[in-house]
Amino acid sequence: MADALQLDRVVYDAWAELAHAVVKRQHAFHTPTFVSLDLDGAPVARTVVMRAVSTERAEIRCHTDRRSPKIREITRDPRVSWHFYAPELKLQLRLKASATAHFDDQVADDAWAKSSLSSRRCYLAPSSPGAECAQPSPNLPEHLLGRVPTLEESLPGRENFSVISTTVDEMDWLWLAADGHRRARFTRVGTEWRGSWIEA
Ligand SMILES: Cc1cc2nc3c(=O)[nH]c(=O)nc-3n(C[C@H](O)[C@H](O)[C@H](O)COP(=O)(O)O)c2cc1C
Fold first, then answer.
1. Ligand 1 atom index nearest CA of 64
2. Domains in the chain: how many in total?
3. Degrees (nearest 5) of the Cα angle 146, 149, 151?
4. Which residue's CA is the nearest one to ligand 1's atom 25?
5. For a designed S-S bond to 176, which of 86, 88, 90, 114 qualifies (C-beta 3.0 to 4.6 A apart)?
6. DSSP assignment letter at 130
7. What pTM value is reported for the model?
8. Pocket of ligand 1 (CB under 6 A)
9. Is residue 16 classed as helix, strand or coil in its secondary structure?
10. Whose CA is closest to atom 12 on ligand 1?
C-alpha cells in the first residue's frame, strides 16, 4: 500500500483528516498541541480544541481567552507549531504556521455566535487565566459552578473571547508502518503544496 503513496494524495488526505477531526470529538486530532514562543523566546506547548479547518486557506483555528498568555505570545511573535498524533491512523503531523488573534471583528463574532453555552462558560472567568490565586480555583463565578450559563448570563463572556487563526506554511507528515515508516515534507506555495519524501 505504501508503494502506492503519492505526495499530492498524502497532503490532500492529511487536510481531509484534520477537517474531519473538527467535528469528530473522539478523533485524536481534535485536541492537538499548540506551540507558541514565550516572551523570552522559549517554546510553550499546550493542548487546545481544534475549532475550524479550511483546506483552501490552509487555516486552523482554536478559541481562547484573550487575557491568556498565548495571546500575548502570538502578538509578539506569530510563529507557531501544531502537533497531531492519531494512534488509530499511526499518523503524526507537525505543522509550522503563522498566528493572528481575532477579538472585536467578524471572525470572533461569528465563532462566538456558534459557540455552545457550556463553551461560553470558560469566558466568564473573573480572573485572567494564569493569574496567581491563594487556593485551587476553577476561576468561575460562584453561581455558575456545576451548571451552564443561560444565554443572557453568557453574554459578558464575549469580551474575553478570542479566535486564534493560524495559516500553515509547512507540514511534516510521518506514517508508522511495520514494513518501515514513511515521511514527507510539504511547503505551501500560494494555494499549492510542494512535497518531497524524506527519510523517516
Ligand atoms: C483537552 C484539553 C483541551 C483544551 N482546550 C483548550 C482550548 O480550546 N483553548 C484554550 O485556551 N485552552 C484549552 N485548554 C487549556 C490549555 O491547555 C492551557 O492550559 C490554557 O489555555 C493556558 O494556556 P497559556 O497559559 O499557555 O495561554 C485545554 C486543555 C485540555 C487538557
1. 11
2. 1
3. 165
4. 69
5. 90
6. T
7. 0.96
8. 31, 44, 46-49, 62-64, 68-70, 129-130
9. helix
10. 48
For atom 14 of ligand 1, the residue with the nearest CA is: 48
- What are the pLDDT tens digits along the chain (200 aa)? 445 689 999 999 999 999 999 999 999 999 999 999 998 999 999 999 999 999 999 999 999 999 999 999 999 999 999 999 999 999 999 999 999 999 999 999 999 999 999 999 999 999 999 999 999 999 999 999 999 999 999 999 999 999 999 999 999 999 999 999 999 999 999 999 999 999 99
Q: List the CATH number of the domain containing 111.
A: 2.30.110.10
**Which residue has the CA at smallest separation from atom 30 of ligand 1?**
47
CA atoms within 13 A on the CB side of 159: 4
Quote the cell numbers at residue 89: 491512523
Taking CA atoms, 2 is separated from 28, 86, 180, in Å, by 22, 18, 9
Residue 62 alpha carbon, nearest atom of ligand 1:
8
Domain range for residue 178? 2-131+138-198
All three cell numbers of 146, joined, read 456545576
